[in-house]
Write a structure and sequence with these properties.
Elements (H helix, E strand, L loop, with lengths): L3 E5 L4 H12 L3 E6 L9 E4 L5 H15 L4 E4 L5 E2 L7 H29 L2 E8 L10 H20 L5 E8 L11 E2 L10 H13 L4 H12 L7 E4 L1 H12 L2 H12 L1
Parallel strand pairs: 1-2, 1-4, 2-3, 4-6, 5-8, 6-7, 7-9
Length: 261
């Protein structure tokens, strides 16, 4: 019997790549996105991760057809940029709603069936920015820090039900994420480094890992019998992570400031 996976944000980028790799390994794949577009061979479902009712209908549809969900790859997300002082509150709410609340609601929707079967894996897709807050991406960094905290707490809550939970923290990846970033330039006259900082981030992204490399790390984590609390996609980001943990906080954030401000 085929294993069943649900991938959010499957219409493009990392989610699309993850769905393709799962299909090649013989999984039954359901891809969830607002557009409902998925790789050939997957089942597309149109849903909004910020709307609980929409997610519940999607999950019920999968359970009716396949009887179970063995794996959730919680990937849907987007980014905003700009100085905190000039960030519109509605943009900040949208950022947290999609990147954090969306991952929470999707996990919440699949948990009852996993708990009943005492089996399942949830992979939260996060970012190294969640542990190394980046200037002019404060709310993106905050959303990913929240995702990490959610994953780490949930991991201990559901271990008695044999549900495995892990977080994969990404470095820069070359996807359509860059082009759809919601940029706020209203404070550029005051925060003159905003433009150059965001340009540096976007250059790093477009020279980053391919979505298939990232998806490979996600699938490797998903297939672990006893996954670690978190994984980092990209060798240099593992080094950055270690250095930030080892260095005094003042020095670590001085270095990040040099890179992106």
């Amino acid at each position: 019997m085929k294993k069943t996976a649900l991938v959010t944000g499957a219409s493009s980028g990392i989610g699309y790549a993850a769905a393709e790799l799962l299909l090649k390994e013989g999984w039954e794949v359901y891809g969830l996105s607002r557009r409902g577009t998925v790789p050939e061979g997957a089942h597309g479902i149109s849903a909004d991760v910020t709307v609980e009712e929409s997610l519940n209908v999607a999950v019920d549809t999968i359970l009716e057809k396949s009887g179970k969900i063995d794996l959730l790859i919680n990937n849907a997300g987007f980014g905003i940029s700009g100085p905190v002082e000039f960030t519109d509150a509605s943009d900040a709410r949208d950022q947290m709603n999609v990147n954090f609340i969306g991952e929470f609601l999707t996990a919440k929707a699949v948990l009852p069936s996993m708990r009943e079967k005492k089996s399942g894996t949830i992979v939260f897709v996060s970012s190294v920015a969640g542990e190394m807050a980046i200037p002019y991406q404060a709310f993106y960094s905050a959303s990913k820090a929240a995702v990490n905290s959610l994953a780490f707490a949930l991991r201990n809550e559901v271990k008695d039900f044999r549900i495995r939970v892990t977080s994969v923290m990404l470095g820069d990846a070359k996807t359509g994420f860059t082009a759809v970033r919601r940029k706020d330039s209203s404070g550029d006259r005051v925060y003159t480094k905003n433009v150059s900082a965001v340009a540096a981030m976007e250059k790093d992204e477009q020279n980053g890992m391919s979505p298939y490399d990232v998806a490979g790390v996600i699938l490797k984590a998903a297939k672990k019998k006893h996954p670690a609390p978190f994984y980092i996609a990209g060798g240099k980001y593992k080094v950055f992570h270690i250095l930030v943990k080892m260095l005094p906080a003042r020095l670590a954030y001085f270095v990040i400031g040099l890179m992106y401000s």
